[in-house]
Automatic annotation (TrEMBL), chain A:
Its main location: membrane. Belongs to the binding-protein-dependent transport system permease family. Keywords: Cell membrane, Membrane, Transmembrane, Transmembrane helix, Transport. Coiled coil: none annotated. The keyword Chloroplast does not apply. It comes from Garicola koreensis. This is Peptide/nickel transport system permease protein.
From TrEMBL, chain B:
This is Peptide/nickel transport system ATP-binding protein. PANTHER family: DIPEPTIDE TRANSPORT ATP-BINDING PROTEIN DPPD (PTHR43297:SF2), OLIGOPEPTIDE TRANSPORT ATP-BINDING PROTEIN APPD (PTHR43297). Residues 20-267, 299-543 form the ABC transporter domain. It comes from Garicola koreensis. GO terms for biological process: peptide transport. Its main location: membrane. One of its GO terms (cellular component) is plasma membrane.
Length: 340, 569
């Protein structure tokens, strides 16, 4: 996630004295590039998404400083915490039925969520890309087997699959690291087919591109073709899938926790679990235990989805909004790109 | 108020079908807005073909599309395009819809994509008629049958219910023209109407367009980069360069006496077909060829069959072809699309598998070859691809792309070591050496194709396969690339298989020419002999169909072709 400060970057490349040359590397990084290209509503969406996401990342990083209590703390210096206490100066967002401080749980929950997302995305990216490249480029029986396997995984309801995997890995409930790992791996299993599919489709397309054929004619070895020519060109749509998958990962993690297959409340804070415990509170008018973790889930998913959607639109030149040209045409016309 | 003013001016000049006045179009891009058209003024009279010529990026397509109001959202236009009393630039989308089809229609470049594959052609013609609400379903169908007959589709009564894929490319273009004609518009905009077609089909479509002008009284705005087509069809020519009209003249005056420097340059760059025996032999044919040396490529009864779908026989792309390519020789392979010329080129470098007969490349049998055993020989074969835009990895700089073969075959350990060779190679294709740091998209098509040549020659191969290396380029650029190619060929003496659909280009370069027709080699002989004294009727028809960039000569050639066709029937 990029920090929100990049929105201040000036968008006029001429101001930096860059003319025909390449822009510096950091300006070509995915999110920075998109932000510099964006205008109007698309810029608003992207900035809102980035700010929301950055907020949660900061929350995760600074959780020990922000949160007044630990996620599994049940008593302070004045004795045990009250149960189901309404918001007060001492407990900003109240306490749960188990006696946890809601505010602290929500803050610490961001850490769990961000960590799980990062783990799940990294795991599935590496597996998915490797399998997709090999399967798409070599083809044959290996390709057919892998595609069938991916389809079979697709056919499973993803939450059900995640439940099964989490039971297999951790026997249902577990501690902080193994819990996060179980959640991450179960999400990975669901997401690998997506990366696999995308990378495989790109590879199959690129395989027929003249520049890959040209490398074959030159006698390049298969690993060289894959790493130098195919891989770098196949990853263009990855930023989009990553953002979309990240939001799905959060929902899956919350779903697992909600159903009781998540992380033990003593091992880590997890919004899904807190929501589950808040069910009974709803009918008795105790709103603070459910609203805050729920809002956290919604806002983080919204933030990441906004980033994903606007990145998708900005990457496509046909969907990208551009500044209107000035009415007064000038004499120094440069070569036109592709319009004629 | 604007409309009233326009009406007054058209009354003053009633014999003008379209009047473009001081048209300016600019496009919004990520960077500075691009001004594609800068103050163009043109007019077309009824019964007249105005050809708009220029290289890609000159603004010719955008200008013509503005007549239909077909500009992308990122474009903004000023000026006036007066069509039947309306200024198209000012019209609302609803009014534009009324104008399109009724007053002006368009013939697209690629007939295969201009037709919707899931509807019958009759339905598609009727759609335009019924959109303007003057025809019932039955009337529209009758009109569709009638118009299909007019454009020369046989059995229109029956064919009206056929789908686009059941027609050939030329017939599809006829149907697209029929759709344009359906409502009897006064102006037809034809955007490269024959570029996607084979030469023999092109001649027929040009005939049809000429009839459209004569019989229907329509004005045609013809956009093309092919000066032969211009000479064949146009009455008046407007030459566009960087968004401006630099010269406008009658077709004969323009070809006989081009005024503007750019027009002169454009016309001199057009390769001319030498059909009459002349002294202008290809420059390098005097070069010594070692007749006794073993041929680099030896094809005997070569067969290439693409596997068919389950239960269907495969497609025989190449059928019993024999030819040899000696060291240092340039062999031109000519043929229309689907004739198998590209397939042969790809089979020589092992991109397509040869399935029958024998194809020996550098002494290695390519029928049933294994990549592992052929790989060492790859350093001795170069390949130049057709489309310079896609034959480079967009993420590698030009220098890296050219260094790639050196690295693969261990001639250089890393990029630093290869840098000197890369500079030499770029210099050899007349590119500044600092281009090594640029990326492919920063180069023009012609420059990219020269880099492609440099890459293919990096390992000093004995054999070069060039698959339509100039067909994606503008004429003026093509001349430069061909110049560089012949210079290098003479200096380095590599043998070349030059694949092209353009007889004039092949005639300029090749020592020997092979003509392919539906997978068979119908004619094979010395270059001049094939061009001046063709034996096979197909070669004769092919040669007669090529339009030459000279209106006077083209007229007589057209008549000869008509006589030839009549004799064949």
């Amino acid at each position: 996630m990029t920090s929100a400060s990049t929105e201040e970057t000036p968008t006029d490349p001429v101001a930096h004295g860059e003319t025909a040359g390449r822009e510096p590397r950091w300006k070509r990084l995915p999110l920075v590039w998109h932000l510099r290209r964006s205008v109007g509503l698309q810029r608003g969406m992207l900035v809102a998404g980035l700010v929301l996401s950055a907020l949660f990342v900061l929350m995760a990083l600074l959780a020990p400083l922000i949160a007044p209590y630990s996620f599994n703390q049940l008593s302070g210096p004045d004795g045990s915490f009250p149960r189901q206490a309404p918001p007060s100066a001492e407990f900003w967002w109240g306490t749960t039925v188990g006696g946890y401080d809601v505010f602290s749980r929500v803050i610490w929950g961001a850490q769990t969520a961000v960590l799980t997302v990062i783990l799940a995305v990294i795991l599935s990216i590496f597996l998915g890309i490797a399998l997709g490249l090999i399967s798409g480029y070599l083809g044959g029986w290996l390709d057919r087997v892998l595609v069938t396997l991916a389809d079979a995984i697709y056919a499973f309801p993803s939450l059900l699959l995640a439940i099964v995997v989490s039971i297999v890995i951790s026997g249902g409930e577990s501690g902080f690291l193994s819990g996060i790992l179980a959640a991450a791996i179960s999400i990975t299993v669901v997401f690998v087919p997506q990366y696999f599919r995308v990378i495989r489709a790109e590879t199959v397309r690129l395989k027929a591109e003249p520049f890959v054929e040209s490398a074959r004619v030159l006698g390049a070895s298969t690993p060289r073709i894959l790493s130098r020519h195919v891989l770098r060109n196949a990853t263009r749509s990855l930023p989009l899938i990553i953002t979309l998958n990240a939001s799905e990962a959060i929902l899956t993690l919350a779903g697992l926790g909600f159903l009781g297959f998540g992380i033990n409340p003593t091992a880590a804070a997890e919004w899904g679990y807190d929501l589950n415990r808040a069910i009974a509170d709803v009918s008795s008018g105790i709103w603070w235990t459910g609203i805050f973790p729920g809002a956290a889930i919604v806002l983080l998913v919204l933030g990441i989805t906004l980033v994903g959607e606007s990145v998708n639109d900005l990457s496509d030149p046909r969907l990208r909004i551009r500044r209107r040209p000035r009415r007064q045409p000038r004499r120094t016309a440069t070569a036109m790109k592709g319009a004629a | 108020m604007a409309a009233a003013q326009n009406r007054r001016t058209t009354e003053e000049a009633p014999d003008v079908a379209v009047d473009i006045r001081d048209l300016r179009i600019s496009f919004a891009t990520d960077g500075e807005p691009v001004h594609a058209v800068e103050g163009v003024s043109l007019h077309v009279r009824p019964n007249e073909v105005l050809a708009v010529v220029g290289e890609s990026g000159s603004g010719k397509t955008v200008t013509a599309k503005s007549i239909l109001g077909l500009l992308p959202e990122s474009a903004s236009a000023s000026g006036a395009v007066v069509l039947a009393g309306n200024d198209v630039v000012q019209l609302s989308p609803d009014q534009l819809r009324q104008v399109r089809g009724r007053d002006v229609a368009m013939v697209f470049q690629e007939p295969a994509t201009a037709l919707n594959p899931v509807y019958t052609v009759g339905w598609q013609i009727a759609e335009g008629l019924r959109a303007h609400g003057q025809h019932s379903r039955k009337q529209a169908r009758a009109r569709a049958v009638e118009i299909l007959g007019t454009v020369g589709i046989p059995d229109p009564q029956e064919r009206v219910d056929h789908y686009p894929h059941q027609f050939s490319g030329g017939q599809k273009q006829r149907i697209v023209i029929a759709m344009a004609l359906a409502l009897g518009p006064k102006v037809i905009v034809a955007d490269e109407p024959t570029t996607a077609l084979d030469v023999t089909v092109q001649a027929e479509i040009l005939d049809l367009l000429r009839r459209v002008r004569d019989d229907f009284g329509g004005a045609i705005v013809l956009i093309t980069h092919n000066m032969g087509v211009v000479a064949d069809l146009a009455d008046r020519v407007a030459v566009m360069y960087q968004g401006e009209v630099v010269e406008e003249a009658g077709v004969r005056e323009l070809f006989a006496d081009p005024r503007h420097e750019y027009t002169q340059h454009l016309l001199s760059a057009v390769p001319r077909l030498t059909t009459a025996a002349s002294d202008s032999e290809p420059a390098h044919s005097a070069q010594q060829q070692d007749e006794t040396a073993a041929p680099l490529v030896d094809a005997r009864d070569l067969e290439i069959v693409y596997p068919g779908r389950l239960g269907r026989p495969g497609f025989r792309a190449v059928d019993g072809v024999n030819f040899t390519l000696a060291p240092g020789e340039v062999l031109g392979l000519v043929g229309e699309s689907g004739s198998g010329k590209t397939t042969i080129g790809r089979a020589i470098v092992g991109l397509t598998r040869a399935t029958g007969g024998s194809l020996s490349v550098l002494g290695h049998e390519m029928v049933g070859f294994r990549e592992r055993s052929f790989r060492p020989l790859r350093s001795r074969v170069g390949f130049v691809f057709q489309d310079p835009a896609t034959s480079f990895n967009p993420l590698l700089s030009v220098g890296e792309a050219v260094a790639e073969p050196l690295l693969i075959h261990g001639r250089a350990a890393d990029a630093r070591e290869a840098a000197a060779s890369v500079r030499q190679l770029l210099d050899a294709v007349h590119l500044p050496t600092h281009y090594a740091h640029r990326y492919p998209h920063e180069l023009s098509g012609g420059q990219r194709q020269r880099v492609s040549l440099a890459r293919a020659l990096a390992l000093e191969p004995e054999l070069l396969v060039a698959d339509e290396p100039t067909s994606a380029l503008d004429v003026s650029v093509q001349a430069r690339v061909l110049e560089v190619f012949s210079e290098l060929q003479q200096r380095l003496g590599f043998a070349t298989l030059f694949i092209s659909h353009d007889l004039a280009v092949v005639g300029m370069l090749a020592d020997r020419i092979g003509v392919l027709y539906r997978g068979e080699l119908v004619e094979y002989g010395a270059g001049q002999q094939v061009l001046t004294d063709p034996q096979h009727p197909y070669t004769q028809r092919l040669l007669a169909s090529v339009p030459v960039p000279d209106p006077v000569e083209q007229q007589s050639r057209r008549e000869a072709l008509a006589a030839h066709r009549a004799a064949e029937d």
